[in-house]
Structure formats: C-alpha cells, structure tokens
UniProtKB/TrEMBL annotation:
Provenance organism: Oenococcus kitaharae DSM 17330
Top-level lineage group: Bacteria
Name of the protein in its database record: Sorbitol dehydrogenase
Pfam family membership, one: ADH_N
InterPro entries: ADH-like_C, ADH-like_N, ADH_Zn_CS, ER, GroES-like_sf, NAD(P)-bd_dom_sf, Zn_alcohol_dh
UniProt keyword annotations, A-Z: Metal-binding, Oxidoreductase, Zinc
Gene Ontology terms for molecular function: oxidoreductase activity; zinc ion binding
Names of required cofactors: Zn(2+)
Organism placement in taxonomy: Bacteria, Bacillati, Bacillota, Bacilli, Lactobacillales
Ranges for domain Enoyl reductase (ER): 7-301
Family: Belongs to the zinc-containing alcohol dehydrogenase family.
CDD domains referenced in this protein's UniProt entry, alphabetically: threonine_DH_like
Length: 333
C-alpha cells in the first residue's frame, strides 16, 4: 500500500509499505480523507504538535475512512462502517486524567503524531478512538471532525448565553468554524474580524455574521461579551482583550510562538472582571461535532478549498502552495 512517510525533518515521500494488522482491540481503517493543519506544518518542520513526532512516521491526525478489518476483541465496529478517529490518546492514570482534565494528560500520545495516521491507505486505531460517521455526513466533511472538536472544546470552556455579543478574530478555517459554532450555541450576535475581504463577506452572506472588520484598516470597538482569538499573533491577542466589555470572556485559541508575549492592561482584567481562557486540543467532543455536522448546524464543505493527493502534500507543508484555506487530502481511490 502507499504511505506518505515523514522520513526526517522537512523530508517526506510516498513509500510502498505493508498493510498493518490490527491488534485485538484495534480497528483497521481504509483511509479516505485526511485534513492538513498547522500541527502538520509544525511536525514537518521538526517542532512538536500536541506531542512530538519522531520520524519515520505517517502524519494525518484529522481523518476519515472505512473499516477494513476489526481485531478479535472489537464488538462495536464491523467491516464497511464509515468512521472518523479521535487522534488523542490519554493515559487514564496521571493526575490530570484522574481529575477529569484528560487534555492535560502527562503522557499524551496521538494517532498521526506519535503513531501512524491517515496519510496512508490503511492505518490502525484503538476502537476507543473510533467514531461512526452519521449517514448524512460525507467522509470529506467527517475528516474535519478533529478540528471541529478543538473548537467545540474551546466553546465548552466558556459560559455561553443568548444575550452575548461575540467577536471572532481570525479568518482561517478555525475562525470560520467558530463563527458557525457560536451561532449553533445560541449567541445572538457574532461579528468577525480578519484580513481577507472575501472570507469576511462569505461569512456575512452565508453564516449569519452581523458586522465584519478588516484588521488592516478597521478599528474594533470594545463591545464584546465573548471574544475568540484564532490567529495566534501578539497584535490580535492584544486586540482580543481590548475588544471586551465588563464581564467578558476571551478564548485564547490561536497558538503563538513558545516564547511569545503580548501587552495587556492588567488593571482592566480586574476592573472588567475578565476571563482569559486558554484551550488545548479536544477531549470528549467528537459526539458533539458529529451531531453538529449531521444536523446541518455546521457546514464545513464551503470552507474546504483544496483536495490534494498524497504525493502533493509536501508542497503544502513546505509552503510551495500558499493561501490555502483548508486542504483535505483525498487518500487512495
Ligand atoms: N487551541 C487549539 O487546540 C487549536 C487547535 C487548532 C488550531 N489552533 C490554532 O488556531 C489558529 C487558527 O487556526 P487556522 O487553522 O484557522 O489557521 P490558519 O493559518 O488557516 O488561519 C489563520 C488566519 O488568521 C488570519 N490572520 C492573519 N493575521 C491576521 C490579523 N492581523 N487579523 C485577523 N486575522 C488575521 C489569516 O488571514 C488566516 O486566515 C492557529 O494559531 C492554530 O495553531 C489551536
Ligand atoms: Zn489538526
Ligand atoms: Zn494521563
């Protein structure tokens, strides 16, 4: 079978490899689609994602496919099931796992990061990580269940109520997911800030955004009960905190550089009683994400801009191909 192997930092090639055999508690999946995100860019460049990837390894933590074989002890899946995989595997034994915060696990491992993922024709996953995809959700859309789940986790860390006015900063795939999610969670107004006018317009026309701001020329008013920062730059982090009203919550979702800092008026944190909330990966969120896709409250297909094949992926990770909104790789036939 074909596998796209990260053989060393910044080196990747399609290799002919042996189809894996599932262990007793594992499912063998014929991979159909695999999304590429910032984590894959980091891993390709030798930086850690949620965990570190040690070559040789097959990336593809965002994926979907069809069950091809099940291990001897697997009872909940059968050959032919359409599935997607939660990549993050928590140890269940550490302090964080045992206090109900598995995303902070000291021994995190992940499919497509520390063990082979969906950028090969067949890959295995423990059955505990596998979710059936509802019939009315395409496998292409289902390959985005993992990033949707990151956004769902972020939203679950906030207290959302209908009176709130929300602002999303960042017009990438994640920011656009947050626009739809906040509407789905009942926030009555969602405004949107980015730098790409077409994306701002699309979200106004199609996804119920009220006001848009192009941060290269517009001033953002201090008007928001909920602000989601989905860029990860110091200036947008500063803009996020400055856009708040009293009692506001700021979700710091964007990933900055490890040594990054931004300027914040700490008196305002006190006086406005702000909540500055971080968000890391996506525990216990796959069922919510699949339900949001199945109910039509989330529409991800218009946000997927590129559908490369396995051999094209290095061009996406080394920056040869630019201005990609969201690439979802079509794996195999
Ligand atoms: N916390 C988590 O668990 C988690 C999960 C997934 C992604 N992320 C992070 O979320 C961020 C967004 O992810 P993405 O996949 O959408 O990334 P992306 O690179 O596709 O999008 C970033 C977007 O930010 C926009 N942008 C750049 N400068 C801006 C500015 N000054 N003002 C407004 N918008 C600006 C760009 O136009 C781009 O569309 C990244 O930092 C990513 O690492 C975090
Ligand atoms: Zn990802
Ligand atoms: Zn743990």
């Amino acid at each position: 079978m074909d596998a796209l192997v990260l053989t060393a930092v910044k080196q990747m090639e399609v290799q002919e490899t042996k189809k894996p055999t599932p262990k007793a508690n594992e499912v063998l999946i014929e991979s159909k689609y695999a999304g590429i995100c910032g984590t894959d860019h980091a891993l390709y460049n030798g930086l850690p994602g949620s965990a570190a990837a040690v070559p040789p390894i097959v990336l593809g933590h965002e994926n979907s496919g069809i069950v091809a074989e099940v291990g001897a002890d697997v009872v909940d899946f059968k050959v032919g099931d359409r599935v997607t995989v939660d990549p993050n595997i928590y140890c269940g034994k550490c302090f964080y796992c045992r206090t109900g915060r598995p995303e902070l696990c000291d021994n995190l491992s992940a499919i497509g990061v520390t063990r082979n993922g969906g950028l090969e024709q067949y890959f295995t996953a423990p059955e505990t990580q596998v979710y059936k995809v509802p019939d009315n959700v395409s496998l292409k859309a289902a390959a985005t269940t993992e990033p949707i789940s990151c956004a769902v986790h972020g939203v679950k860390l906030l207290k959302l109520t209908p009176y709130q006015k929300a602002l999303v900063i960042g017009d990438g795939f994640m920011g656009q997911l947050f626009v739809q999610l906040l509407r789905a969670y009942g926030v009555h107004q969602v405004d949107f800030a980015g730098i790409i006018d077409e994306k701002l317009a699309l979200n106004k026309e199609k996804f119920g955004v009220t006001n848009t701001f192009n941060t290269t020329r517009d001033q953002i008013p201090a008007d928001y009960d909920v602000v989601i920062e989905a860029v990860g730059l110091p200036q947008t982090q500063e803009q996020a905190v400055n856009a708040t009203v009293k009692g506001a919550q700021v979700l710091m979702f964007g990933v900055g550089k490890p040594n990054q800092e931004f300027k914040m008026n700490t008196y305002e944190v006190y006086q406005k009683q702000l909540t500055i909330q971080g968000s890391f990966i996506n525990p216990n969120a796959f069922e919510d994400s699949l339900a949001l896709l199945s109910s039509g409250k989330l529409d991800v297909l218009p946000l997927i801009s590129n559908e490369p094949s396995l051999k094209d992926v290095p061009d996406y990770l080394d920056g040869t191909i630019k201005d990609v909104s969201k690439a979802v790789v079509k794996v195999g036939e």
